[in-house]
Structure formats: structure tokens, C-alpha cells
Amino acid sequence: MGKVLSSLSRHVKIYNVEERAFKVISKEKPVPAPLHQKSLQEIEQLKRENPSALSEQQEKNEQLDQHLKNVYVLSHDPKKKSPEFSKSREIAGLLPQLRKPFIDHEYGYFEPDKKSIAPGKFTLKQAIKFLSKHQEQPDVYTAEVIAKEHKIDQNLAENVIRYFSMFGYHDPRNKTNQKLEPNIAQKLQQLNVTNVKALMGDYEKEVKEKEKQLQDGDKKSDNVT
């Protein structure tokens, strides 16, 4: 049933379609769509305030028309260049223009000059330098010296040397000659420990005795079982 109705409606739509189309085309001026109520109110207000505005839009403005006639653009074809010039430009575009070797920065990025660093700031290179000096001479190159040299806060310098340090080589075979950290050395000085080597020897002796006691205890338990 639906198929029959759709077929009938299609025939009704196309019935006498050419005559209806010519009837619409033959009209001198098409009928405009009705305006919205708000648009009609605005048009009426414009007519009251400026009655000549609508009539001026429908008339031809001779002055504007003359201005449009005076505006024009002149264009010229570019001069043809010689084949040799175009060929040289093409070759130059293929070849590299910068022939200097690429300079890689020390830390992978460009660091500003010392004069351009603002007070209270320091670069990675400067941080590595004063951390190395502090690690080599902790009593001489203190946080106060670092703060004065780099114009930073002393608390910041103390935190940097406390929580950051440079890599160092420690030989595990030479336990008695290992370089102690600055804070450990200060604690040993406070405890009046002068012979660090003897202290390390006593500690190793105590550890060996503990290990021996544990081994003897394991042997006794095996014999009992």
C-alpha cells in the first residue's frame, strides 16, 4: 500500500511541471518571502527616522560609479631570465649553503654568557664546577663561599651541596682508604675519632666474629638433629 501511495504522490508532483515552471519564470518580479515581525518593525523605524535612506539605496550614485571606473590595475609580465641564470639558481638550490662544521655544545644545549646570567641563578656548568670543588675541598669551598661567588642565597647553596654530588670512583678492594663523605668526616671529628683506619679495622673484625658465631651455631644445630 505504501509503495502505491508513494508512486501516486510522485506522479502528482511532476504533473504539468513544465507549465508551472514557465508560469513562475514569466513573472516580472518574484514575490519575496514574508519578513519577520522584528524585521518589519526595524524597517518602519528606519522609515520614520530617515525617510530618504531606502530611496537612496535604489538610486544610482554617480560619484561612487565614477570612483569605481577610476580604480584599475595594471599588470605586466615579468622579464624573462636567461637560461644560464635559471640553471645556476637551480644548482645553488640543490647544494648546501652552510658549509661550516656543526659545533656541538658541551652539555647538549647553548649556555648563556656569565655576564648575562641574572643574580640568584647559575648554569649547569657552574653547578658542576662548584660541586666538584666542594667535593675536593669541603672545608675551604663551603656553601658561604659558593653563595658569594655565584651571588645566590646561602640556604640554596647549602641544599645544593647537600642533595647533589659528583660521581666518584671507589675501589671496593681498598676499604680502609676509601674517601669519606664530608658529613661523615665531620661526624667523626665531633666524636674525636682520629684513626679512621683503626676504626674500620675494628669494624671488620667485629663483623667477622659475628659471622663465625652464626656459622658455629648452624653447625651445633646440625649435630643435634
UniProtKB/TrEMBL annotation:
Keywords, comma-separated and alphabetical: Coiled coil
Coiled coil: 193-220
Protein source organism: Clastoptera arizonana
Name used for this protein in its record: Protein NDUFAF4 homolog
Region annotation Disordered: where it falls in the sequence: 33-61
Superkingdom per UniProt: Eukaryota
Any one annotated GO CC term: mitochondrion
Compositional bias of kind Basic and acidic residues: 39-50
Pfam family, one: UPF0240
BP GO annotations: mitochondrial respiratory chain complex I assembly
PANTHER family in the cross-refs: NADH DEHYDROGENASE [UBIQUINONE] 1 ALPHA SUBCOMPLEX ASSEMBLY FACTOR 4, UPF0240 PROTEIN
